[in-house]
């Protein structure tokens, strides 16, 4: 651990778990920090063989342009992590009784704080980059930090800043809880050791698994837990009641912030429970919008990457056509831009044209026809119908989340 008080608020200083964190960034700094527009080699394209140019298309998957919600999600996440560590200052345990009067002691131990450790919900349509956003934001923090000494005092502990798990297909709570223990094992370097939480609780019941996750999170001072694809554990309506109970138990036991992400269908299973809804949105709810304005901006970035012999200037009509075909879904835009290149390169064409995107749409995106047509219809229930279609495609293995 390396401790730093730069940009650490006064009331958070003296806490090694907070001072060991990376410097707190302003929301205005987040976009440039997490954006990824890799440099490509576009020199002497005419002399490069087709196979080499096609191999370069993989670079498009690394492009990341933060959406309108990114800064707000990042700011809320940073606050959640730091606020959660205020009441878990390991240096207060020894000195708290001597350093504070009764009123300060009550305040210092968090008696007036909200009993909910903090839960956030991030929603976005399939293919809009919600999973990518959360992973990029979490990656700003090291997964774990080892502490040995703080200001001359021994502090032998491992601080796990974050773990991220995917909800299992079918909504198995037992599988989800076991996945949490596997991730904690990995972060604490306990995998395949006698101390492994996952190995110890391989056959434990759900109540015991919840307790084990809570103890592991507390032992390793977990900063935030991310549960992705929340819609998977609300898909089965027969399990909605147990899922509601699970959310409440998780908040009570884990004692650290939890960030949920999923499609707009995620909250359906909790609508009938005020308690679960209150918990899951206790520190905010964010939506990644699907807008034509952002899609046009994304398309302009994509057109910086062209591997045909004669690159073209971004034509507003061609950009609009790509946005139209993709229904402003960023993952589909990348898919079509890559396939349009393959079509043009194989045919030996000099430049990209609308016909290449049409061909790409008719071949590579044929499984998505129905869903994209629904989105383009702009009907009141278009997004829900799209998610229903995408859910079936995911089950059949045709598409993966982005």
Summarize the helices and strands and which ones pair or pack.
Layout: H1 16-19, H2 27-34, H3 50-55, H4 70-86, H5 92-99, H6 102-108, E1 119-124, H7 130-138, E2 144-150, E3 153-160, E4 162-166, H8 173-187, H9 197-200, H10 206-219, E5 224-228, H11 240-254, E6 258-262, H12 274-280, E7 285-288, H13 292-302, H14 316-326, H15 330-347, H16 354-363, H17 369-377, H18 382-395
Parallel strand pairs: 1-6, 1-7, 4-5, 5-6
Antiparallel strand pairs: 2-3
Would you kindly provide a written description of the structure presented here, covering whatever features stand out?
The chain has helices at 16-19, 27-34, 50-55, 70-86, 92-99, 102-108, 130-138, 173-187, 197-200, 206-219, 240-254, 274-280, 292-302, 316-326, 330-347, 354-363, 369-377, 382-395, and strands at residues 119-124, 144-150, 153-160, 162-166, 224-228, 258-262, 285-288. The longest helix is centred in the last third of the chain and has 18 residues, at 330-347. The model is unreliable at 94-100 and 108-113 (pLDDT under 50). With 402 residues, the protein is α/β, with parallel strands linked by helices.
């Amino acid at each position: 651990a390396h401790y730093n008080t730069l940009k650490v608020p006064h009331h958070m200083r003296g806490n090694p778990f907070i001072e060991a964190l990376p410097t707190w960034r302003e929301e205005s700094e987040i976009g440039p920090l997490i954006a990824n527009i890799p440099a490509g080699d576009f020199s002497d394209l005419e002399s490069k063989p087709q196979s080499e140019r096609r191999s370069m298309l993989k670079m498009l998957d690394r492009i990341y342009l933060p959406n309108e919600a990114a800064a707000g999600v990042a700011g809320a996440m940073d606050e959640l992590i730091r606020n959660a560590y205020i009441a878990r200052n390991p240096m207060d345990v020894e000195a708290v009784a001597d350093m504070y009067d009764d009123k300060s002691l009550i305040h210092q131990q968090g008696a007036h704080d909200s009993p909910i450790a903090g839960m956030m919900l991030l929603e976005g349509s399939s293919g809009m980059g919600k999973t990518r956003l959360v992973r990029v934001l979490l990656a700003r923090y090291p997964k774990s930090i080892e502490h040995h000494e703080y200001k001359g005092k021994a502090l032998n502990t491992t601080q796990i800043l974050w773990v991220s798990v995917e909800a299992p297909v079918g909504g198995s709570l037992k599988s989800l809880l076991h996945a949490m223990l596997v991730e904690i094992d990995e972060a604490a370097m306990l995998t395949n050791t006698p101390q492994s939480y996952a190995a110890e609780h391989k056959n434990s019941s759900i109540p015991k698994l919840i307790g084990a996750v809570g103890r592991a999170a507390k032992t390793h001072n977990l900063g935030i837990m991310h549960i992705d694809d929340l819609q998977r554990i609300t898909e089965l309506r027969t399990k909605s009641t147990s899922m509601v109970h699970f959310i409440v138990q998780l908040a009570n036991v884990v004692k650290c912030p939890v960030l949920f992400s999923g499609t707009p269908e995620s909250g359906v299973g909790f609508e009938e429970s005020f308690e679960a809804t209150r918990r899951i949105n206790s520190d905010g709810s964010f939506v990644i919008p699907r807008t034509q304005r952002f899609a046009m901006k994304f398309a302009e970035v994509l057109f910086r990457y062209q591997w045909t012999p004669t690159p073209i200037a971004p034509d507003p009509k061609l950009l609009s056509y790509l946005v139209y075909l993709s229904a402003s879904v960023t993952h589909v835009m990348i898919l079509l831009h890559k396939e349009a290149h393959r079509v043009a390169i194989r045919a030996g064409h000099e430049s990209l044209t609308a016909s290449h995107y049409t061909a790409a749409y008719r071949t590579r995106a044929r499984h998505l026809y129905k869903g994209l047509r629904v989105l383009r219809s702009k009907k009141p229930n278009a997004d829900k119908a799209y998610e229903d279609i995408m859910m079936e495609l995911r089950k059949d293995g045709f598409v993966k989340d982005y």
